[in-house]
Every structure is written in C-alpha cells, then in structure tokens.
Amino acid sequence: MSNDRIGGLSQQAVAALIEQNYVGLRLLVARRCHDPHVAADLLNEAVVTTWSKWQAGKIERPEQIAGYVLQVTMNLLRNHRRAIAERPERRADAAKLQELAIEREPGDETIEREIAMQVKRVIREMSSPRDRSILVRFYLDEEEKDTICRDMGLSPLQFDKILHRARGRLRKLLEAGGLGRKELLCLSLL
Amino acid sequence: MPVSALIDDPTRAGRYLAGQLSDAESAAYEAQFATDPEALAELEATARLKIGLQRLRSSGELSELLTAPAVSPNRTWMLAMAAGVAAAVIGLSLWFPRSGPVTSPVLASAASVFKDHNGHGLSVMATAPMFRTRAEKYDAVIDLPATRGAIRLRVLPSSPAGTARYQASLSRIKDDNTAERGVTLSDLQPSTDDGFVDVYADSSLLTPGRYQLILTRESGGAGNGDSDTFVIQVNSSH
After folding, report:
1. What are residue B121's DSSP bridge partners?
2. Of A84, A146, B77, B113, which one's alpha carbon is 20 to 30 angstroms from that of A100?
3. Nearest one of B44, B212, B132 to A171, comparing CA atoms
4. β-pairing verdict for B165-173 and B183-188
5. Domain spans of chain A?
6. CA A160 to each of CA A1, A80, B9, B14, B126: distance values in angstroms, whole numbers, following the listed order
C-alpha cells in the first residue's frame, strides 16, 4: 500500500470522512473550543498526527483510521482546555467561559437544527416526563448519575435502561438516514 | 470504577464527554475508538444528543418539550407509510404555474417527475431542510445550481403525525410582500424515517427572490387545516 494513502483514502479524504460521519463530535469539539477555527485546527492536527503515525508503522488497523483520528482529537481538545485553564493571565474561570456565545460556521447552523429536530422526536416519543427529565439532567446538565438516581428514587439499573432506550432510538433515527453521509453531502451543496 | 466495568456501561459516553471519567478510564475508553466501531458510533450518537439538547434549550423549546404529550412511534404508522409509498408514486400530484403555459411542473412529489430533454429524470442537486424557527430571517436559503436539477425541499410539520396527509403550496413573494398565485401539491405523506414531507422543485423554473412554502395538514386526525409557512430565499447560481 502506498504511504500517501490508507485503505485507498488520501489524507484529505480522511479529513472529509471525519467531517461527514462524525459531525456530532466535530460540532461538540467546536462548542468546547468556542471557536470553529480552533476546532478545525485541532481536527487537522489530529489528522496530520495520525497520518505520521501511520507512516511510522504505528497504526495497526488502518480500517479504523477514524477512531485513531478522533482519539487524537479528544486528546488535543483536553490539552487545549487545560492550557486555557492554566493560563496565568486568565480572568474568567472555565465555567464562565462555557457560558460565552459560541461562534459557528453558517453551515453548522443547518446541521445543528436538523440534529435538534431528531432529538426532539426522541424526546417526544418518550412517554414519561420523568425519563425526559433524566435525559436532560444527564446529557445536557451533566449531573452525576448517582445524584439523579437519588433525587428521583431510581435504581442504577432503571437509570441505565432509560438511557439505553433513548439512545437506541436516536441511533435508529440517525442510521435511518436522517443525517447520514448522503444527507450531509447534499447539505454541503447549499 | 474498574476500567473493565466501563464496557457495556450505557452511561460511559455521556460521562466521558462530560469529563466525569478518570484519566485511566478515559484512556481505556479512547483506546476503544481505534478498535471498536461500536464505541465510536456510541460516542457520535451521544455527541449528537448533547448538541441537539443544547440547541433545543437555546431555542427555548426544551422546557415545553419536557411536558409535551408523548408521540407514539407506532407500527401502524410505519406500515401505513410503507403502503403509502406506492400510492405516492402512482398518485403524483403535479403543481403547475397557472399564469403561464402548462408545459412543465415546477413542483412535484418525486424528482423523477422532472425530465430532461432526453426524457431522463433530473438528479437532486441540493436539499433544503425546513422547520419552524423564530431565529432566522429565512427558513432556507437555496443557491440555484449552475445546471438544471431537482431541489429537494424537506419540510417538517410543526405537529407531525404519521397518518396525516399534507398539501404543499409554493408561491413567489413579490416586492410588496404579497404572494403571487402559486401551485399546489396534495396528498403528501411524511417520511417514515424522520417525519419530514419531501417535495421537489425544478431549479430551472425557480428565479432568484423570496418564495413562501405553506404546508397544510389535509387529513389524518386532529389538527386538520393546521398550516406552517416557510420563507425561502433563492439565490442565483454563482
């Protein structure tokens, strides 16, 4: 296999593959960075780093190249956030930074709206207001599982089942083509 | 928590993205990305869930959703949708501009209705998803493609129902903000996958400017007659 291609993919194609198939993670990274350009830089750096590892023979499963890239991306994001938190000249804490307005690419607005519609469907299909509340507290407010279980009188197993059902429904919606690869290609034409 | 216990833990992706895993747990989980496509899919689905929830809270919809009545994703809806596909293909209602010669449809419920000069169906050149929002000036912006093609307009009813039938009307908005006489498609069914109603426009018959698309529920239970209006900005090709 040529060193400038992995599994028939070029370096640019790997970046595009991440962009198209892992848009949720990319958007989340962009939100955490508060700047889509910084996020794009992180992702690009992750692709380049992964590529170097491949050329050095350090990647065992080239078919899982996306996993390697995202692993590096999440590492870079963690380092980026730590670097900001540790800057001596910083005036605001990390929690305050989270509340700042987030700059977004125009195309991301459309994608986010479509994702929100899918999540909306998942929530509307949940019959119990309690289950909906759990979804929000855990995934959005990032409260600890133990705290939520204690507040709502749930066993850990009940809690897991609720999350499992909701997430399974969302994955079915995603896999049914609501925002799959083809759809994203279409969106990019707009 | 032992690292091994993270396997099959339905909360791990959420806790990972929330920064609630220890360094060792995070490292073990991240190592899975390169070996287990399922772990990556789980993480991506969780990321989208978080993005969607953040978006719904920002738009002010979340609190209302938490108390809204449940919508059942029942099987009869899926069956009705599957059975309806044939009817949709056979019973295509074409929408023609009434002010000009009736030679070609502007809007159709399938892209294949539009034919090029060789009689071949047009390709879908772009997709414009539309759902109600208070934040944007336009509900969709369409850049006309350089070559003729079909534009897929994906319209989400504000109160979707699997058994409902919809009517879609598209008309151009004049400079004085009144709408020109438009054309209408009837008996449209929402997608079984995501509830969107799809209609297709022939790009060669659209001109730059503003259009309004009105989606009205024709039948299918409570809410008949309810309509959603979307404003579309059509730009010329670059």
Report:
1. B115
2. A146
3. B44
4. antiparallel
5. 11-99, 106-187
6. 44, 32, 8, 12, 40
Encoding tokens for residue B2? 């032992």
On average, the pLDDT of chain A sits at 76
Chains A, B: CB pairs < 8 Å: 186
CA distance B54 to B235: 31
CA angle B231, B232, B238 (to 5 degrees): 160
Q: Is the CB of residue B168 less than 8 Å from the CB of residue B159?
A: no
How are beta strands B150-155 and B107-108 bridged, if at all?
unpaired
Measured between alpha carbons, how far is B196 from B126 in angstroms, rounded to an integer? 16
The answer to whether B2 and B28 are in contact (CB under 8 A) is no
Residue-level pLDDT at A147: 93
- Return d(Cα A20, Cα A66) in angstroms, integer: 11
Spatial distance between the Cα atoms of B13 and A182, rounded to a whole number of angstroms: 26
Interface of B with A in 95-154 (CB under 8 A): 124-129, 131, 133, 136, 140-143, 145, 152
B49 vs A174: CB contact, 8 Å cut-off?
A: no
Q: Which residue of A has its CA nearest to B138?
A: A110
Task: Determine the 3-state secondary structure of A88 from DSSP.
Answer: coil
Asked if B79 is an interface residue toward chain A (Cβ–Cβ < 8 A), one would say: no
Task: List, edge to edge, every strand of the sheet that includes B140-143.
Answer: B140-143, B227-235, B209-219, B165-173, B183-188
Q: Which residues of chain B have pLDDT under 50?
A: 1-7, 75-103
Q: What CATH architecture is A106-187?
A: Orthogonal Bundle (1.10)
ipTM exceeding 0.85? no
Q: Kindly report, residue by residue over A124-161, the tens digit of the pLDDT.
A: 888 888 889 999 999 999 999 999 999 989 999 999 98
Give tens-digit pLDDT for B51-109.
999 999 988 888 888 877 766 655 434 444 444 443 333 333 333 333 333 345 688 88
Closest CA to B125 of B188, B214, B200: B200
For B20, the closest of A109, A136, A144 (CB atoms) is A144
